[in-house]
Amino acid sequence: MEWVSSDDGLGGSMEALPYLSESSQSVPSSTNISEHEFSCHCCYDILVNPTTLTCGHNFCRHCLALWWESSHKNECPECREKWEGFPKINILLRDATDKLFAEVVQRRRAEIQDNPKISRGLLAFQRYGDNLGRSKTNQHKGAGFFFSGVLTALTCVAVMVLVYHWSSGVVEQHEMLISKPVSHWTPEDVVSWLEFLGPWAQLYREPFQQENVNGRLLLMLGEEELLKAPYSIDNQAHRRAILAELDRVKALGVKPPQNLWEYKVTNAGKSLFLLYALKRSPRLTLFYLYLFDYSETFLPFLHTCCPAITNIGQSVESSFLNTQMEPSWRQWAEFLVKYLLLPYQLIAEFAWDWLAVHYWTSRFIIVNTMLLSVLEGCALWRLWTRASIRSMPRKMWNHLWKMLSQGFAFALLWPFVPQFVCNCLFYWALYFSPIINIDLVVQQLMHPETQAL
């Protein structure tokens, strides 16, 4: 910078200003210019890469980046006024400080480069600005446009699948046994119930048909009757399996649900609640099942995910009986380790066991659990790298309060929500959540530092 006066009339006023020439650059510490006038209001040191906000205040670039990373707010650290867009370096002010205080600025730049925390903060701040610029210029292009197209295509496919599913009556043909009292069962209903027990039950289908066993006769059957002709069930494991399932039918008064769709028909609101709750907070949801639905849901879930050590030659009907028994300490130990560290793996193992019954649905659930595990791992990694582990209890309490309040609100509003809306929410959470989570995982892996906790 060099002031040159060509007008004699302005000579007096120009003489009052600092005259910067090549000879005067070596004397920056004049009485009119001091480092205090070019200091940052965050670190109170000379400005390095000064950044000017919309409010007019100037800060070091790295000070502003560290403030943004810790507060997650786009506001001035001094006056708390929100800035617009992405702050840029004031080039004129930067050149002035570099020329007036060269030695001090070079020393501070070396200190900043040697500090890894400041380097990570600057990188995260710059990526935030890059993403902000791309979102404004390419809001209809790139990955977002691709995933929105995928969602639209999958929505059309899902609507066609649901229309076919409802029109074919796959669920309706079993609804009668789920809702129909056992005493009103016809002989055809009894045979259909027997088929649900497994392939081994086909051996005894003919005797039940010959005797024309209806619901009332089924309730009168006991171990002695099953031993005698015409049933002649000599296999003890087969007999115990039939009696165990018969006891469940007598206790419930109807056929208990044995797959996802039957469970949804019987417990429409509960299935929707569990589907969303398992995605948002699997540990709290499993604890809820342990407290309020132990025998019907929690025990079969635990035995499926953490099976007991059995003999190689154990039959299918014996394993069916084991799902109603109390778990061993080995099963509890395995379950608790997975419950604390890998809760989504438990859900994936449960879905894998039902792969033969729910082919595509189980695959959607398994993919979704993998994506949710990655998202949970990224959240823990951010807590660790940002040294905010101390905030974990507060975040856990906020999450617990949020889940409890949402569950209470769902319990109040559920009776007033139309069944069609509940079905849409159920299938959306079941089939579309993996597609949304894919986009979230891509964002986390590409820009992990810019994600806010």
UniProtKB/TrEMBL annotation:
One cellular component (GO) term of this entry: endoplasmic reticulum membrane
Description of how the protein assembles with itself and partners: Interacts with CASP8, BCL2 and BCL2L1 through SAM domain and also with HIP1, IFT57, ESRRBL1 and BCAP31. Interacts with NGFR; this interaction inhibits NF-kappa-B and JNK-related signaling pathways.
Function: Membrane-bound E3 ubiquitin ligase that plays a role in several processes including apoptosis regulation or reticulum endoplasmic stress. Has anti-apoptotic activity, both for apoptosis triggered via death-receptors and via mitochondrial factors. Contributes to the dynamic control of IRE1/ERN1 signaling during ER stress by inducing BAX inhibitor 1/TMBIM6 proteasomal degradation. Promotes the activation of TGF-beta signaling by mediating the 'Lys-63'-linked ubiquitination of TGFBR1 which is critical to activate the pathway.
Reaction it catalyzes: S-ubiquitinyl-[E2 ubiquitin-conjugating enzyme]-L-cysteine + [acceptor protein]-L-lysine = [E2 ubiquitin-conjugating enzyme]-L-cysteine + N(6)-ubiquitinyl-[acceptor protein]-L-lysine
EC number(s) reported in the record: 2.3.2.27
Keywords: Apoptosis, Endoplasmic reticulum, Glycoprotein, Membrane, Metal-binding, Transferase, Transmembrane, Transmembrane helix, Ubl conjugation, Zinc, Zinc-finger
Any one GO BP annotation for this protein: apoptotic process
Protein's UniProt name: Bifunctional apoptosis regulator
SUPFAM superfamilies found in the cross-reference section: RING/U-box, SAM/Pointed domain
Domain RING-type: 40-80
Enzyme class: transferase
Compartment list: Endoplasmic reticulum membrane
Domain (SAM): residue spans on this chain: 185-252
Membrane spanning residue stretches: 145-166, 364-384, 404-430
InterPro entries for the chain: SAM, SAM/pointed_sf, Znf_RING, Znf_RING/FYVE/PHD, Znf_RING_CS
Mode of membrane association: Multi-pass membrane protein
One GO MF term attached to the UniProt entry: zinc ion binding
